[in-house]
Specification:
Distance between the termini of chain A: 67 Å
Number of strands of chain A: 0
Structural class of chain B: mainly alpha
Shape of chain B: globular
Number of helices of chain B: 11
Shape of chain A: flat
CATH architecture of chain B: Orthogonal Bundle
Function (chain A): Part of the binding-protein-dependent transport system for phosphate; probably responsible for the translocation of the substrate across the membrane.
Largest sheet of chain A: none
Radius of gyration of chain A: 29 Å
Order of helices and strands of chain B: HEEHHHHHHHHHH
GO biological process, one term (chain A): phosphate ion transmembrane transport
CATH class of the largest domain in chain A: Mainly Alpha
Distance between the termini of chain B: 31 Å
Subcellular location (chain A): Cell membrane
Number of domains of chain B: 1
CATH topology of chain B: MetI-like fold
Strand content of chain A: under 5%
Strand order of the largest sheet of chain B: 1-2
Pfam family, one (chain A): BPD_transp_1
Main location (chain A): membrane
CATH class of chain B: Mainly Alpha
Helix content of chain B: 55-70%
Number of strands of chain B: 2
Oligomer: heterodimer
């Protein structure tokens, strides 16, 4: 009796399209497993040597199978949704593989020669085909170059962002915004060539850490401007208006209200910009030139730099040099990562909601 | 509006003392910030002017045609050099990189903001943030010593099944080719594009998403109707950042590519070159004139990136709806 009354009701709602049949929750996992199994099967049967191919076949199968199964059971809209979901997952997995491999290779190969000796000695007097030597001179050079570049570009970048967000109206602001955008796209090698033609070829200075730092600051400025600009824009206008309503002048409002509110984001932006330029090797190749000996003076003479050191060691083309290159790469990544982590720490510490 | 009043209610008349110091401070501050903006413009102009002067010097003595000559013999006694190979290589490798990286990056960004389990999305975003900071020379080292030997199998497979297309032919040997460069560039620019896209997607108005969900939309429909339209210009500007990096990437290309003065559509085989790679490789042997010649090629690269960025900027300006701010 009850069965006969309920059945037509559900059929009716199904006809209206209200009650859709759904795949069980474990379906994506099941399809993924099946696809992986078939992928491995095809791979072994066809004798494909590369694991990448197995993965690609499995990924393709997964996407197609989940679309087909869902389309027959759940209908087209749900199938599209599942297709999108699986594409998103595939995209994620595709990206994880090379990035994880990059980190793994760098750490596992870099750890071989990385020790206290490596960090505290230069390449002075080391024959490149033999093991030994270190990166002290390169670390010193990089720290100095990046420091000078930050001193040049952080104030200019910050002020420019303030100009654009708080004062900027009219043609000048439009031009600055446009050219900041264009400037973010300047290849590092072009910045290097510019300083080369201005500083070394025209003004006649020699290679130095300072020349490299100037090129780096050209690369850093637009990044600082863009990130600071975004952060300043996120500060609600209500805060500014409240400050103006209390009679606080504009510059004080900026200094005491707008900047403190956004200081976390700004610091993070500047630190990320530093992290970006710390790894730039192209301008160093043109302007700092590389030097196997310790040169602590960034204003005179060729220096070393970590990214440049890696390139030189790679170019030597022998196992001992490759080991040094990987170890230096590990040092550089660690430096950049620490910078990032500190930046985020500051951002969290200075975040306005903690006040 | 008297100067000093003893009104207990402060707001309506602004105390004159603080306004007067404020005005001076305002002038100084706005002057400084305007000056910084102008300085940026001056730097950009200086880059263009200096590169152009050097480039004219080089091109005026060039025996070959700057745009159609394949070889780069800037140090020869009648110097002869051209950028045909470099233009081709730069465009091909960047296009490959963009074709691979942009869809994947948008996918990851959506994964982080809308698909991943909430507990995972935070750490994943954090890790990708960190990966964006990995220096290009490290990618270059990885590309040359890990990626190149691992791509031979994949390329032979491509050759077996798609070799008939002509441009996917592969002779064998270490694939230090434009395709490998493109793949490496894609890996490099992936974190940058992902980061910016993710931030934009995360800012998509929650109310609209929930409204769409309440009307029975599937998750994909929500993304298509509420998230992607909101984030489109953000994705474009993210891609622009990525393309800029791909076009001008020097060290990663210089370590991976085995350059030659041939212009070949067979992108799996070694050969070709890019602007930045050529500058880095040829710089140490270049004399004074050779440097001018390299600067000339750098100017072309500069102009290309200028056009790309300008175009992207126009696209963004046309879609104004993306603005996280009320300024």
């Amino acid at each position: 009796m009850t069965a006969t009354t309920t059945l037509p009701a559900t059929e009716q709602t199904d006809a209206l399209g209200i009650h859709q049949p759904r795949l069980p929750k474990w379906a994506p996992a099941g399809i993924a497993l099946g696809a992986a199994a078939v992928g491995v099967g095809i791979g072994t049967v066809a004798g494909l040597s590369s694991r990448i191919q197995w993965g690609l076949i499995a990924a393709l199968l997964f996407v197609l199978a989940s679309y087909a199964i869902s389309a027959t059971v759940e209908g087209k809209r749900q199938a599209k949704d599942r297709f999108a979901t699986s594409m998103v997952w595939v995209a994620f997995l595709l990206a994880v593989i090379p990035l994880a491999s990059l980190i793994w290779e760098t750490v596992s190969r870099g750890i071989k020669v990385l020790d206290a000796y490596f960090l505290t000695h230069s390449m002075s007097g080391v024959v490149t085909i033999q093991p030994g030597g270190g990166v002290y001179h390169a670390i010193l050079g990089t720290l100095e170059q990046v420091g000078i570049a930050t001193l040049i570009s952080a104030p200019i970048g910050l002020l420019t962002a303030i100009y654009l967000v708080e004062y900027g109206k009219g043609k000048l602001a439009k031009a600055v915004t446009f050219f900041v955008d264009v400037m973010t796209g300047i290849p590092s090698i072009v910045a290097g060539l510019f300083i080369l033609s201005l500083w070394i070829m025209m003004l006649g200075f020699s290679y130095s850490g300072l020349a490299g730092a100037m090129a780096l600051s050209i690369l850093m400025m637009p990044v600082v401007v863009r990130s600071t600009e975004e952060m300043l824009k996120l500060v609600p206008n209500e805060l500014r208006e409240a400050s103006y309503a209390l009679g606080v002048p504009k510059w004080k409002t900026i200094m005491k209200v707008v900047l403190p509110t956004s200081i976390g984001g700004i610091t993070t932006g500047v630190m990320l910009a530093i992290a970006r330029i710390a790894g730039e090797s192209a301008p160093l190749l043109l302007l700092v030139f590389g030097n196997p000996v310790i040169n602590g003076n960034p204003f005179d003479g060729a220096q070393a730099g970590l990214p440049l050191f890696i390139y030189e060691q790679w170019a030597n083309g022998n196992e001992a040099s490759y080991d040094r290159a990987w170890a230096a790469a590990l040092v550089l990544i660690a430096f950049v990562m620490i910078l990032n982590l500190v930046a985020r720490g500051i951002a969290r510490w200075k975040a306005p909601q903690h006040r | 509006m008297s100067t000093t009043t003893d009104t207990p209610v402060a707001p309506p008349p602004a105390p004159s003392e603080s306004t007067s110091t404020g005005r001076v401070g305002d002038k100084v501050f706005s002057g400084l910030s305007r000056g910084a903006g102008i300085l940026l413009l001056v730097i950009m102009a200086a880059i263009a002017v200096f590169l152009t002067v050097r480039a004219i010097n080089a091109i005026s003595e060039n025996e070959g045609n700057f745009f159609t000559t394949f070889e780069w013999n800037a140090n020869a006694t009648p110097p002869s050099f051209g950028i045909a190979v470099l233009v081709f290589g730069t465009i091909v490798s960047s296009v490959i990189a963009m074709v691979i990286a942009v869809p994947v990056a948008v996918g990851i960004a959506l994964f982080i903001t809308h698909y991943a389990p909430r507990k995972l999305s935070g750490p994943i975003a954090y890790v990708i943030d960190l990966l964006a900071a990995v220096p290009s020379i490290v990618y270059g080292l990885w590309g040359a010593l890990f990626l190149v030997p691992h791509l031979t199998g994949f390329y032979s497979w491509l050759n077996d099944y798609f070799g008939w297309t002509g441009f996917l032919e592969y002779q064998g040997g270490a694939p230090r080719s434009l395709m490998t460069v493109g793949i490496l560039l894609a890996v490099m620019i992936l974190p940058i594009i992902t980061n910016v896209s993710r931030e934009v997607f995360a800012q998509a108005p929650k109310m609209q998403e929930e409204a769409a969900l309440a009307l029975g939309a599937t998750r994909w429909e929500v993304i298509r109707m509420a998230v992607i339209p909101f984030g489109r210009s953000g994705v474009i500007s993210a891609s622009m950042l990525g393309l800029g990096r791909a076009l001008g990437e020097t060290m990663a290309v210089a370590t991976v590519l085995s350059p030659s003065a041939v212009l070949s559509a067979k992108i799996l085989d070694p050969g070709g070159g890019t602007f930045a790679q050529n500058i880095a490789s040829a710089f140490k042997e270049a004399g004074s004139f050779g440097r001018d010649a390299l600067i000339a090629s750098g100017l072309v690269l500069f102009v290309i990136t200028l056009i790309v960025n300008g175009a992207a900027r126009l696209i963004i300006a046309r879609r104004k709806e993306y603005s996280g701010a009320n300024a």
